[in-house]
Amino acid sequence: MCGIVGYYGYRDCSDVLVDALSKLEYRGYDSAGIAVFEDGNIKIAKSKGRLSDLVKKMEKTGKPKGIAGIGHTRWATHGEPSDINSHPHCGKNVTIVHNGIIENYRKLKDYLISQGKTFVSDTDTEVVAQLLDFYYCRHSDPVKAIIETTEDLEGSFALAIMFNDYPEYIFALRRESPLIVGVGENESFIASDVPAILKYTKNYYLLEHNEIAVLGRYGAKIYDLHYQKLQKELKTADWDMDAAEKCGYEHFMIKEINEQPTSVKTTVLPRIKDGMPTLEECGIDDSFLCGIRQIHIVACGTAMHAGVVGKYAIEKLARVPVNVEIASEFRYKSPILDKSDLVIIISQSGETADSLAALKLAKSLGAKTLGIVNVKGSSIAREAEKLIYTLAGPEIAVASTKAYMVQLSVMYLFAFRLAFAKGKISQSECENYIKLLNEIPDKISEVIENQLENSQYIASKLINSDSLLYIGRGLDYALSMEGSLKLKEISYIHSEAYAAGELKHGTISLVTEGMPVIAVATQDDLFDKTISNIKEVKARGATTIVVLKDGVELPSDVADYIISLPKTIDLLMPMIACVPLQLMAYYSALLRGNDVDKPRNLAKSVTVE
Ligand code: M6R
Question: Would you call 604 a catalytic residue per the annotation?
Fold first, then answer.
């Protein structure tokens, strides 16, 4: 959570910092701030609220002018969102911005107070600023002060730091929380994520844990905690600038929904050879797959929902048992694992704290591990033994859409190859599944084209409801979970996903006149059963929205609204049926006047427990 940036170069530093922060606002957006060296002195502007509030404030007060500085966009953990708790925070000689959590901040704060330091904010960050100051007073050497401070800190964090006495330099440190150093012509950058620097350069160093960066006139230098200078590999981002821009769309979410056909192709095509799925480039061959006796898919939120679809696909085709676990539960429940178990961690960001901890736990218990990750070089990508990248490009909207879609794609590829390796499906069956998977991108485009207006219309009928239900059976139930999450996180309308057959065991008592019930009914073998469940809610006054395949006959008086979708095999229907659910969530949020891309209380990358 939180995004940090730093700059040293020749441009107007305030402008660069604000622009870079605008690409990181998905990480947190309850306050923002910058600090810039202006004529040798540090000038700070910060404000509660969005980055746009900070910009408005600076329009009145004047923006700091200079060529070196740091910036921050916040998702509050310690202390409410307020001007005072906004970053940057200061010690006497030091100004910092921080992403992450200092776990032992209480103890350190008590110690610093006993040494005469005073605090103005409730943040853990101010403790770091004061501690840096404490060690700087002892050494008068910024890097030594950073090293000693780091030794005292517990937790995961990334810092960008300015020392009053060093107006020609910006310092940074990474432990766990992501941080890159962008390298341009006569300028360098610090950022929590690549999109922040893409406008200026594609070249960057990925800082490892406990590495220190120093930006200055000569460029960027990187040191370890022994103050040894390091030679790092310069990486080149393969995302272009458009990936981090709205490109004419009103919101990132709708742009990303529209990018789904391309994202699926980009993710699937490189993993097909001679019509067969191949994961060998990811280090996954048939002998590895044959050794798997049980699978645990561990993830959070949308990524976990992709895992539930994966479970159905893997169990149906490969006949390997799969548990899907919420990462924050898995990590504390003493899981039973051994070397024939595969733990799959799914994560868009690759930085989700609970998923990362679950991965480390699985490794320590001797299980095989596989990461399915979107962000290259992220912590989960580097920690997992086997790795399949989803190739969706950057996902900026907090509500995940295209990342979910490519997570589904990888789940299917994995299920097909596993089933083939285990001898549960023949080569021609496997080739046929791949052929059908290849047809999905065009069908997604068709849904976006044909269901956009219908979804918008149905959304207009939902937006005054207090609560609604999503129901389905089998894969339709798995998809309902994601539909429900999407709606609630951005429209703020309460909803629940329910296995359609389970309703009558309690939840149906919630159904009253006019309550919307979205029924996903795309599975042929379960269709009649789901229709019976729809009739049950209809008989109790529900307004029903039925999602089904083109050409399927629906009994009269079952649906108030119908969403009819292009056909594929039932197994792949979630990739098609999720699109109208995404669109309905998008338009519900839009019509309610919500900030679609930055819903309240949320952040995209959840790096705290
Ligand atoms: O980066 P991750 O995929 O690990 O994130 C997991 C969840 O935080 C994420 O999917 C969240 O549920 C999304 N906001 C849902 O749209």
Answer: yes
From the alpha carbon of 300, which atom of ligand 1 is closest?
A: 6
Q: Same structural domain for residues 315 and 401? A: yes
Q: What is the DSSP letter of 91?
A: -
Domain endpoint, select from 397, 425, 453: 425
Nearest CA to ligand 1 atom 12: 301
Q: Determine the average pLDDT of the residues in 334-340.
A: 93
Ligand 1 geometric centre to CA of 347 (Å): 7
CB of 488 closer than 8 Å to CB of 500: no
* Same domain (yes/no): 45, 158: yes
Would 509 be classed as within a structural domain? yes
Ligand 1 atom closest to the CA of 398, numbered from 1: 14
- DSSP string for 19-79: HHHHTTGGG--SEEEEEEEETTEEEEEEEES-HHHHHHHHHHH----SSEEEEEEE--SSS
Beta-carbon-side half-sphere exposure of residue 246 (alpha carbons within 13 Å)? 10
Structure tokens at 25: 């606002």
| Protein residue whose Cα sits closest to atom 10 of ligand 1 | 302
Lining residues, ligand 1, CB within 6 Å: 300-303, 347-349, 352, 355, 398-400, 485, 489, 606
Residue from 27, 348, 378 whose mutation best tests the ligand 1 pocket (most atoms within 8 A of CB):
348
Count of other CB atoms within 10 angstroms of residue 490:
27
Q: Is residue 316 annotated as part of the catalytic site, yes or no?
A: no
CA of 586 to the centre of ligand 1 (A): 16
Give the Cα-Cα-Cα angle 302, 416, 338 (nearest 5 degrees): 70
Q: What is the mean pLDDT of residues 411-440?
A: 98
Alpha-carbon distance 336 to 509, whole Å? 38
Q: For the residues 118-136, what does the mean pLDDT come to?
A: 93
Can you tell me whether residue 551 is helix, strand or coil? coil
Same domain, 281 and 374: yes
- Give yes or no: residues 164 and 111 share one domain: yes
CA of residue 305 to ligand 1 center, whole Å: 10
Residue 431 resides in a domain: no
**Based on the domain organization, do 239 and 255 belong to the same domain?**
no
If one counts the domains in the chain, the total is 3
Q: From ligand 1's centre to the CA of 332, what distance in Å? A: 20
Q: Which of 244, 260, 276 is the last residue of a domain?
A: 244
**What's the CATH code of the domain at 308?**
3.40.50.10490
Residue 380, both tokens: 């989960």
Q: Is residue 222 part of a domain?
A: yes
CA 549 – ligand 1 centroid, Å: 28
Among 228-242, 347-361, 494-508, 561-575, the minimum mean pLDDT is found in 228-242
Residues 354 and 399 in one domain: yes
Q: How confident is the model at residue 389 (pLDDT cuts 50, 70, 90)?
A: very high
Residues 417 and 290 in one domain: yes
Residue (of 148, 38, 28, 166) closest to 97 by Cα position: 28
Query: Which one from 57, 488, 538, 604 is the annotated catalytic residue?
Result: 604
320 is in which domain, residue-wise? 248-425
406 and 447 belong to one structural domain: no
Task: Give a yes or no: residue 382 inside a domain.
Answer: yes
pLDDT at 1 over 80: no
Residue 81 pLDDT greater than 80, yes or no: yes
Instruction: Tell me the best of 26, 400, 601 to mutate to test the pocket of ligand 1, counting ligand atoms within 8 Å of each CB and taking the most.
Output: 400
Report CA(359)–ligand 1 centroid distance (Å).
16
257, 325, 349, 407, best to mutate for ligand 1 pocket (most atoms within 8 Å of CB): 349
